[in-house]
Amino acid sequence: MKSEYNLAKMKSKRNPYASKLKKSVTMRLSEDVIQYFKDMSEEAGVPYQSLINLYLRDCVANHRKIDISWQVGEGDE
Q1: Is residue 20 part of a domain?
Q2: pTM of the model
Q3: What is the phi-psi region of residue 41: left when phi exceeds 0, alpha when psi lies from -120 to 50, beta otherwise?
């Protein structure tokens, strides 16, 4: 094995899977939601977008479903 390699003549190739790794989307999120993940990101040392992605990925992996049925509280009837 050589102690040094000359990579100057090496041609670069695009990663064919790069476009499948992540997709850029635009989302409108509440300020408090963004701040929540930004605060967590400072504690964890991870970008807040990555934390949001990890949380959503966990939802997918565990087949979490959201319950959006409205609860009627006292005095709301």
Answers
A1: no
A2: 0.62
A3: alpha
